[in-house]
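Please decode residue identities from the backbone states below.
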């Protein structure tokens, strides 16, 4: 590939190794706004929603994406990826405490103040960013393994998710807990979906 880009010109560049999937790996495009959904429908192989929307807004955006697919004359994708904020622990109480201490603080710091308001959190519907029980409802996956399985099933059934991307780390969260989350996901949560 040769490309005379102003910032990153390429001359006889190659990509190695070559992709296994032909003609190329599936291109997943994220975003929430009207333009992002249109771009995903016209150019991508799937739309991958970020973790910030609750289920109602997620389903609204999915319908908008499907309308954009139809307008572009493209079929529904074979894959429906979904990203969710997730805190898994041995017990619901432990997961809830960690989520309040790390996930909720992250959202409060990121979305509560400042000039920019997230379009899906607080800006239009006054969703509070200081109450985990309200902010997390139909948005986050928080709990022990059994509770997480039930919450994941809800997203799989309602949204039709075929792939889940779990964001498990939040600022200040102990590394040992992140390792435990990965272990719980692998041993107790994911087997429920095989």
């Amino acid at each position: 590939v040769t490309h005379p880009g102003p910032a990153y010109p390429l001359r006889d560049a190659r990509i190695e190794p070559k992709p296994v999937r032909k003609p190329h790996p599936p291109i997943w495009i994220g975003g929430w706004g009207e333009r992002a959904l249109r771009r995903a429908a016209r150019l991508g192989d799937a739309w991958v929603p970020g973790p910030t929307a609750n289920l109602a807004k997620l389903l609204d955006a999915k319908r908008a994406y499907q309308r954009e697919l139809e307008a572009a004359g493209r079929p529904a994708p074979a894959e429906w990826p979904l990203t969710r904020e997730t805190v898994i622990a041995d017990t619901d109480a432990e997961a809830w405490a960690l989520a309040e201490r790390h996930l909720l603080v992250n959202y409060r710091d990121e979305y509560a103040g400042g000039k920019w308001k997230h379009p899906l959190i607080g800006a239009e519907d006054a969703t509070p960013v200081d109450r985990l029980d309200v902010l997390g409802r139909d948005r986050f996956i928080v709990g022990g393994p059994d509770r997480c399985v039930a919450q994941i099933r809800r997203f799989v059934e309602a949204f039709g998710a075929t792939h889940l991307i779990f964001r498990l780390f939040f600022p200040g969260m102990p590394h040992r807990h992140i390792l435990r989350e990965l272990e719980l996901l692998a041993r107790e949560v994911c087997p429920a979906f095989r």
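Observation: The radius of gyration is 19 Å.
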